[in-house]
């Protein structure tokens, strides 16, 4: 009886940890339209993450934290749109579309 309870406990713990992990990877682009944040604020658009949540975006050895302020992107294959200031901070302005990972 004790071992089955222990196994259930670890399964439940594992499920809780996996559900908290929301890492994604895919393509990111940036936009220069809209006034969803204060000037210079690092904001982004994501399809499903809650508004005002903070997302850590990593690319090419750099990472930034930006606030979800809008919905998007609406182009297949892209997982996040960054504001121009966030794209500048990440160093992706010249590249335009880059592969990123989100935490």
User: What order do the SSEs take from the amino end to the carboxyl end, as H and E?
Assistant: HEEEEEHE
The geometry reads as globular
What's the arrangement of strands in the largest beta sheet?
A: 1-5-2-4-3-6
Overall residue-averaged pLDDT value: 85
CATH topology: Barwin-like endoglucanases
Look at the helices and sheets and give the structural class: alpha/beta
Low-confidence stretches: 15-21
What is the number of strand segments? 6
CATH domain class name: Mainly Beta
What assembly state would you assign to the polypeptide chains in this entry?
single chain
Level of helix content? Answer: 25-40%
Quote the distance from N terminus to C terminus.
Answer: 38 Å
Major pleated sheet: 6 strands, mixed, barrel
> What percent strand?
35-45%
CATH architecture: Beta Barrel
Q: What are the main properties of this structure?
A:
alpha/beta; six-stranded mixed beta barrel; 103 residues; Barwin-like endoglucanases; 6 strands
């Amino acid at each position: 009886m004790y071992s089955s309870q222990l196994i259930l406990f670890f399964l439940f713990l594992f499920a809780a940890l996996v559900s908290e992990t929301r890492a994604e990877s895919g393509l990111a682009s940036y936009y220069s339209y809209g006034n969803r944040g204060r000037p210079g604020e690092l904001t982004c658009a994501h399809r499903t993450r809650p508004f005002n949540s903070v997302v850590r975006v990593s690319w090419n050895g750099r990472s930034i934290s930006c606030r979800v302020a809008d919905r998007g992107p609406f182009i297949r294959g892209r997982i996040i749109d960054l504001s121009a200031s966030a794209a500048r901070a990440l160093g992706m302005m010249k590249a335009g579309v880059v592969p990123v990972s989100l935490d």
